[in-house]
Design brief:
Elements: E1 7-13, H1 19-31, E2 35-41, H2 50-57, H3 73-77, E3 81-84, E4 98-101, H4 112-140
Parallel strand pairs: 1-2, 1-3, 3-4
Length: about 160
Amino acid sequence: MPESPPASVLFVCVHNAGRSQMAAGFLRHLAGDRVEVRSAGSLPGDQVNPAAVAAMAELGIDISGQKPKVLTPEAARASDYIITMGCGDACPYFPGKTYLDWVLEDPAGQGVEAVRPIRDEIRTLVADLVAEIGAKATGERGRPVPTDPAPPGRG
């Protein structure tokens, strides 16, 4: 029996410079090639937040080579999971996707001391996501099945 393609996840926040980059870094670290990882922003910044880079480096995860990317409909269409982190109405909605909205403080303009608790909360959420993706992959044969009919605030 052929192996199904890996699940794909798109993390979206406003600047794609902090929360979404940390989440993508954790997912790459925890899931490896078992999950395809994307991140984007509704108004991408010029660079990844240095405090986010430093906070992740403390855990041995290097996100320093990442660049903020603009959110495109193509990236959303290509993803099984779309995880929003404060991008508001700019986040696209496509039927058949699993949407999760993570309410997280924005690390923009904050030092590494303030970013650590945000990083740790993201790590917990990503670990739970990895478990959910794994459970769906082993329990349903194939790609994850969407669970939410509409993203938060759009139903």
